[in-house]
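Long-time lurker. I teach an intro course on protein structure, and each term I like to show students one example going from raw sequence to a predicted 3D structure in token notation. This year I'd like something fresh instead of my usual example. Would anyone be willing to generate the tokens for the chain below so I can use it in lecture? Attribution to the forum is fine with me.
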Amino acid sequence: MRGGSCIKGGGEVNLVASSWPSIALPHPHSFSEELRCVEMDSAAGGIARTKSDQLEMAPPRPPPLSPTASAESMPVADANGGPSLSRKSSLGKKLVGSSPVTKGGHHLRSTRSGHMKVDCEDGGSGGSLSRASSASLGFSFSFTGFTALPEDIVSDITALTGSDKGIDLEAGRSRKRLMSETTYPIYVKFTEVRYKVILKGITSTSEKEILQGITGSAKPGELLALMGPSGSGKTTLLSLLSGRTADNVVQGTITYNDEPYAKSLKSRIGFVTQDDVLFAHLTVRETLTYAALLRLPRTMTRLQKEERAMNVIYELGLERCQDTIIGGSFVRGVSGGERKRVCIGNEIIMNPSLLFLDEPTSGLDSTTALRTIQVLNDIAESGKTVVTTIHQPSSRLFHRFDKLILLGRGSLLFFGRASKATAYFASIGCVPLIAMNPAEFLLDLANGNISDVTLPSELEEKVRSKNLGGGTRNAKPSPEELHEYLVEAYETRVADKQKKKLLAPLPISEDMKITLSSPKRDWGASWWQQYSILFWRGLKERRHDYLSWMRITQVLAIAVILGLLWWHSNITTETGLEDQAGLLFFISVFWGFFPVFTAIFTFPQERAMLNKERAVDMYRLSAYFIARTTSDLPLDLLLPIIFLLIVYFMAGLRLSIEHFFLSLLVVFLSIVAAQGLGLAIGASLMNIKQATTLASVTVMTFMLAGGFFVKRVPAFISWLRFISFNYHSYRLLLKVQYDHVPPHLNVNHLDNGVKEVAAMIAMVFAYRFLAYVSLRRMKLSS
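-- Reply from a regular --
Happy to contribute to a lecture. Here you go:
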């Protein structure tokens, strides 16, 4: 032993950095030989600290070691008294103090992602290898001991790297650790969860079972992965656990700290959907700031909420793109991994106790997916409960999971420590014949694929005896037979033990249970604050659509064409008067059609965002509705002003400031009333194609029933003109331009226009009330 290293003929690797002490480490190829020299201290009990022990604090570090100090050998022990290695690979730029510190007879390990981890909660007889294994080094090895770095060197290196102080070396600035804040612990348990969907046919209905008796649990400090092939029920189970699906066809029990789901849990649960539901034209900072203003409690000031948003940005490594727009299908913005981290930031900004994610790595490359899962590891290690679905993780991702639920055709195939999944399947006779990703091996079993997998002797005997009568030789089991065997094997060998564990009492007080089950719902902001925040958010998001060059060009082109066709129209003759009346009719029709077909898309396009934000009680529906409708008005009224400025003076309409503004007011009333009709149609159908069809039929009917083309309108349909904005706006424009409307224009019973104005104001509020009721009755989907 020399300088704290064990030297036996093997090479040494000297890791030297500026101002760092020179440390001799064993060469990788001679690990098995070098590590035999490590002597275990029998007097010091090595107790590995699990993730649930987050409140236990590490002992204070001694002063940094001088470069001339020599290293010492530090023993490590696992839960069973056997030697164990906990190691995390180097990223090339940082050296992290990774060895645990044995002091006072207790073995403590740091929970930070940059440190080494020992996972011995369900320790076996052999050495426990950390899930953060030699992924980035490019090779793999196993051993039973390791000479750890001394405590003083560890503290010296950590001080240089700044991993415990939250220093971002690339950004060159310190950042606050948001995930280290105190979290309300929530234990999730679910037993015999079953879920069915009702399939309605033309003549009959049938039931389809999606989940069949799923049992499991997750506790603070753990990352639980739900894995299985497509259609196995991962997303359905995740929705049930998050409280987003509550139908009568759900059976079983789901508890949170041994209490059923309550509305108060919405403020403690974060849910990241598979699709990135974000506003495309808001920047990263604006997105997280608006989320902080709406979701964080009222006890925090606006500055504190904005500071929290910035802390999340630095915590997730988004500082370089904080002023970049999110982007979408037709707008370039941040990358896919950055967009996914923004979605995660939207949820962790409120410091949730439970975080659910639906396939957070879908569509990401392996490196970006690894960074995303590392973020989830950090969140879990801060004392939160994290549950995520995963489709087909790489081997590096798989080893970062604490617990695993393997689903196949809605049935439970495995639940337990992820590191023990392959050992369990080996115990029932399923072993891969070639070296492969453990996640790939498990998914092959769940899919019924038996290529490159040894078959259990019991299953082979069963298939052989079944096919004996038919004379078939060397028949392989079908996917259905393999699935039945795996389900039966889990139920007979493991299921009862897991159910007994779930019956154990939780280490929480009754006060915490009462707090969790409280039906009280707290809003993060007052009604007026919610309205103000949503108003400015809507104004920033939709200004790009309303002020797009296509829409401006459309309005300007039509205005110029109308001005040229009715250039300085003459009303001294009857023909000229009729021509000018035709211009007024076109204005009333155009500013009736245009706003209707614009407003139709409002709520159907934002349905996903509305579902997402309303599911977590981000704001009141009334505040959203009024803010959404009023934030459109400044942008909707800008183009009509430009339009009327061009048409009014080119056509030579009544040149008077009073009459110009009265005409503008009539057009405004027509636009707002037409918008209300479009909002009502869109909110009631929530389908763009259906809403467009209904709107075109409705507007055409209003125009025809107004008597502009047919003088004798049947009585059964003539009443529609009273709820037609085209009818009232045309009559008002005639009244503004001509004090006494000529009789040959066929406009009867036009007095001072008060009735028409009152009717249009009534339509403004009535149509919007119908839209609000339709939104209120809309069922929020998960």
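Some talking points for your students: The radius of gyration is 34 Å. Confidence is low (pLDDT under 50) at residues 1-175.
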